[in-house]
Design a protein that fits this description.
270 residues, Rossmann fold, 20% strand, alpha/beta, globular
Length: 270
């Protein structure tokens, strides 16, 4: 029986950690990173070969060489942190990592990106996997540049997977929106994916060992006001109030090509 490849997960956070657990359950050997030494034992206790790796604008701090050693497929799930700090240079951080991966034996990269690389418009355009990213904010421009960077290598193949808003049992945006007033874009469609589906999609990309652009967004897109009002009521939270005085801007993200290419169906309604 062919030995399963070694999977590296850069970023064992809210998505990366349960992904690692599922890969281990399926018989893969998993290496993972954390930025905090205090988390190392937690990762090792569940069977992950854990390393401290921290990306900065100037360099990579930690055991990046040891982490990349023997990895066949590298999954990069690092939050850009641009909402908290718009002046952060995510491109510089990724360039440092790209240089190290280029020198390694990694043959397949899966880069977790975002649907925010597409612009929101009044006519709610539908964006497909092969559409050219068109968002103009400085944050989106960085994300677009990083997507292009990871696809530029001649030493490894890259799958870029753009997730919509990630939700799960312990994480739902309505918890932060409950009771808020004057929320914009009430008629805009939601673009979400449930954590279990995101994990399933990443594992399918590992199994297929393929390259290209993929979208991870549930195919039903209720309006923001309907979706978040229902989500708040379901959790006995205060319903958020929307501002209907201005025209909503939004978009729909299609995952149809992804589903067809990978023979993959999103099963969990966010």
């Amino acid at each position: 029986m062919k030995e399963k490849p070694v999977i590296g997960i850069l970023g064992c956070g809210w998505l990366g950690l349960p992904l690692a657990k599922e890969l281990l359950r399926l018989g893969y050997r998993v290496k993972g990173t954390t930025t905090r030494k205090s988390k190392i034992n937690k990762l090792r206790d569940i069977g992950i070969s854990a390393h401290v790796v921290k990306l900065t604008e100037d360099s990579i701090i930690g055991e990046v060489d040891e982490f990349l050693q023997d990895i066949n497929c590298l999954i990069i799930d690092v939050p850009p942190g641009l909402r908290k700090n718009p002046k952060e240079n995510f491109v510089k951080k990724m360039n440092h990592l790209f240089t190290e991966v280029e020198k390694s034996e990694v043959k397949h990269v899966i880069y977790v990106s975002s649907t925010s690389i597409f612009e929101e418009e009044e006519n709610f355009p539908t964006y497909k996997e092969n559409d050219i990213p068109n968002a103009t904010s400085s944050t989106a421009q960085q994300l677009i540049e990083v997507e292009n960077l990871w696809q530029s290598s001649e030493n490894f193949i890259t799958a870029v997977v753009r997730f919509g808003g990630l939700v799960g049992e312990d994480r739902h945006p309505v918890k932060y929106l409950a009771g808020r007033e004057n929320m914009k874009n009430p008629d805009a469609p939601v673009n979400l994916i449930e954590q279990n589906d995101a994990i399933r999609l990443l594992i399918r990309l590992v199994e297929k060992s393929t390259s290209g652009i993929f979208h991870g967004v549930y195919p039903i897109h209720p309006s923001r006001d309907k979706y978040y009002s229902a989500a708040a009521k379901k959790r006995s939270l205060e319903v958020p109030l929307f501002d209907y005085s201005s025209i909503s801007k939004g978009k729909k993200i299609s995952s149809k090509k992804t589903s067809e290419t990978l023979s993959f169906e999103l099963k969990f309604k966010p």
